Amino acid sequence: MATVVQSCGTPLAIPLLLYFGRRPKATATAVTRPPLLKISAIYAGLGVLLAGDNLMYSYALLYLPLSTYSLVCATQLSFNAVFSYFLNKQKFTALILNSVVLLTFSAALVGVSHGSDGTNSSVPEGKFPLGFALTLSASALFSLILSLMQLTFDKVLRSDTFYDVMEMQFWSNTAAAIVSVAGLFISGEWSTLHGEMDGYKKGRVAYGMTLAWTAISWQLTTMGLMGLVASVSSLFTNVISTVGLPLSPIIAVIFLGDRMDGVKVLAMLVAVWGFLSYIYQHYLDDAKVKKILAERSAEHRTVKLATE
């Protein structure tokens, strides 16, 4: 069920699709649409990958304390850097490489620390290795999905309008929802839902509201992620998605009873260092672009004054 709610909120995109789909497009900027069969296969493939990724993340969160889970998820930025280099022609710099190494080292610290199992959360005993492996695999697959989305926007759709973002979100999440619901019935877990609702401490209404708002939150998150992929890059999207990473272990300690030992503190600090390295690289890139634009503007004014 935790996997299903990550994609079943896709009908929320229908009103936006209908609204932006009716808007007239300028003929000068119109882009030829790819063949229906090709784009359908791409969206279906992304949906299957999303469903598998959601499933691994769901089991990983079941088998790991939230603080440990959040820190291991930092590796998705490292994976994304590799996929972006090969699939999206992302350029590496010393600061980006430093960020990748630090975030990978941060997750490795958590992985070798068996003290991470110490928690008051309802985590199954002895499941730490499996949870760690699932989180690592899910992070790699999530990074691959982001790079494939950027590749689709750049090479297939050749457009990054809001309608294109909503279309990808709707159809890929629809495919993911179909796969997830099929898995729910095939696994037989659907038969336990009534008991799960009855056993929910806050009651049936609270159970339903939790699922509903989780589904809505996931659709808003997906919309933001895909929008960033379309307008900037998959690597930048992954950086932004890890902004809340340093806060997750702290929140888990306060509200869920997780223990914050020295290794986790060190891993969190290293992760923050790696994140700031990447942000500083973007600052340098932005300053370089502004400098070039300022120089061109100054040259243009000089030429204009000379001709006058």
From TrEMBL:
<feature type="transmembrane region" description="Helical">
    <location>
        <begin position="235"/>
        <end position="256"/>
    </location>
</feature>
<dbReference type="GO" id="GO:0016020">
    <property type="term" value="C:membrane"/>
</dbReference>
<dbReference type="Pfam" id="PF16913">
    <property type="entry name" value="PUNUT"/>
</dbReference>
<feature type="transmembrane region" description="Helical">
    <location>
        <begin position="170"/>
        <end position="186"/>
    </location>
</feature>
<dbReference type="GO" id="GO:0015211">
    <property type="term" value="F:purine nucleoside transmembrane transporter activity"/>
</dbReference>
<keyword id="KW-1133">Transmembrane helix</keyword>
<dbReference type="GO" id="GO:0005345">
    <property type="term" value="F:purine nucleobase transmembrane transporter activity"/>
</dbReference>
<feature type="transmembrane region" description="Helical">
    <location>
        <begin position="128"/>
        <end position="149"/>
    </location>
</feature>
<comment type="similarity">
    <text>Belongs to the purine permeases (TC 2.A.7.14) family.</text>
</comment>
<dbReference type="InterPro" id="IPR030182">
    <property type="entry name" value="PUP_plant"/>
</dbReference>
<keyword id="KW-0472">Membrane</keyword>
<dbReference type="InterPro" id="IPR037185">
    <property type="entry name" value="EmrE-like"/>
</dbReference>
<protein>
    <recommendedName>
        <fullName>Probable purine permease</fullName>
    </recommendedName>
</protein>
<keyword id="KW-0812">Transmembrane</keyword>
<feature type="transmembrane region" description="Helical">
    <location>
        <begin position="262"/>
        <end position="280"/>
    </location>
</feature>
<feature type="transmembrane region" description="Helical">
    <location>
        <begin position="66"/>
        <end position="87"/>
    </location>
</feature>
<feature type="transmembrane region" description="Helical">
    <location>
        <begin position="41"/>
        <end position="60"/>
    </location>
</feature>
<feature type="transmembrane region" description="Helical">
    <location>
        <begin position="206"/>
        <end position="228"/>
    </location>
</feature>
<keyword id="KW-0813">Transport</keyword>
<feature type="transmembrane region" description="Helical">
    <location>
        <begin position="94"/>
        <end position="116"/>
    </location>
</feature>
